[in-house]
Specification:
Elements lengths: L1 E6 L4 E8 L2 E8 L4 H16 L8 E5 L5 H18 L3 E4 L1 H7 L10 E7 L5 E8 L5 E3 L4 E3 L11 E4 L1 H14 L4 E2 L6 H13 L29
Parallel strand pairs: 1-4, 4-5, 6-10, 10-11
Antiparallel strand pairs: 1-2, 2-3, 6-7, 7-8, 7-9
Helix pairs in contact: 1-2, 3-5
C-alpha cells in the first residue's frame, strides 16, 4: 500500500509517504507558510522514494479540526492530487493524529485526551484509546468546548496538544491527567498510519466528498465580545 499524507491544521506543516508500512516524512513548524511548503514537500518525498505518483493508492489528509486556513489548504491539496491521479482520499481526524503522538507518555491502559487550542477561550478536543495495533480509536465525539467544561470520561487519561500549553491549569483540574505532552503537534506520519488502516477497511472517499471538519462556524470574537464596544 502506498499513501501520501498531508497535515496542515496547526502551525506545523507536514507531508508523509507511507510505502508498505514504511513512513518518510517532511515536517516543519512554519506558521503562514503551509501553502508554500506542502506541495514541494510532497514532490521531494516522491523523488526520494523512487516511486511514481501514479503508484500511489490514495491520498490521506488531516481533515481537522484546527486552524481554518490550514484545514482548508490540506483538503484542497489532497483533492487536487486525488483528482489528478484519479485516486480516493482518506480523511483522518487531526485530533486522532495528535493522540497518536502521545505514545511517548503512554501509561498502560490510560486513554488520551487530545486538545488543540481553538482560541476564543476554547479547545478542540477528543478522547481516544490505544489499540492493539499501536494506533488509536475515538472514544466519543470530537467537541469544541471551554477547558473548564470538558466532559471527563471514566478511567485514567494522559493529555496531549496545544490545549494543554494554553489552558493547562483548567484542563488538569478537570481531568487530572497522568502525564501531559503540551507541545506535541499532529503529524502527517500519524495521519498516514491511521489512513493506511482506514483504507484497508475500505474507508476511502471520492475527492469531491472529502470535507473539512471545523467544529466552529465562527472564527473571531465581535468587538462587543472582546469588551471593546
Amino acid at each position: 500500500m502506498k499513501l501520501l499524507a498531508i497535515e496542515t491544521a496547526t502551525e506545523a506543516c507536514s507531508v508523509a509517504l507511507f510505502v508498505d508500512g514504511n513512513v518518510r516524512e517532511r515536517f516543519e513548524i512554519a506558521p503562514r507558510r503551509h501553502a508554500e511548503l506542502a506541495l514541494p514537500m510532497a514532490d521531494a518525498l516522491i523523488v526520494e522514494s523512487g516511486i511514481a505518483k501514479s503508484a500511489l493508492d490514495a491520498i490521506a489528509v488531516g481533515r481537522g479540526p484546527g486552524a481554518f486556513t490550514g484545514v482548508r489548504l490540506a483538503i484542497a491539496v489532497a483533492q487536487g492530487l486525488a483528482l489528478a491521479l484519479d485516486r480516493p482520499v482518506v480523511p483522518v481526524s487531526t485530533l486522532a493524529a495528535l493522540a497518536l503522538e502521545a505514545q511517548a507518555i503512554r501509561h498502560d491502559d490510560a486513554g488520551v485526551l487530545a486538545a488543540i487550542d481553538a482560541r476564543m477561550g476554547e479547545v478542540y478536543a477528543g478522547t481516544f484509546a490505544f489499540d492493539a495495533d499501536g494506533l488509536v480509536s475515538a472514544l466519543g465525539e470530537e467537541v469544541l468546548v471551554r477547558p473548564d467544561a470538558i466532559a471527563r470520561p471514566a478511567g485514567a487519561l494522559i493529555g496531549v496538544g496545544s490545549g494543554f500549553a494554553t489552558y493547562g491549569d483548567a484542563l488538569r483540574a478537570r481531568i487530572a491527567p497522568l502525564a501531559v505532552a503540551p507541545y506535541a503537534l499532529p503529524r502527517a506520519s500519524a495521519v498516514a498510519r491511521l489512513a493506511a488502516r482506514a483504507f484497508a477497511r475500505g474507508e476511502g472517499v471520492d475527492a469531491a466528498d472529502a470535507q473539512p471538519v471545523y467544529l466552529r462556524d465562527k472564527v473571531a470574537l465581535t468587538l462587543a465580545e472582546q469588551g471593546k464596544a
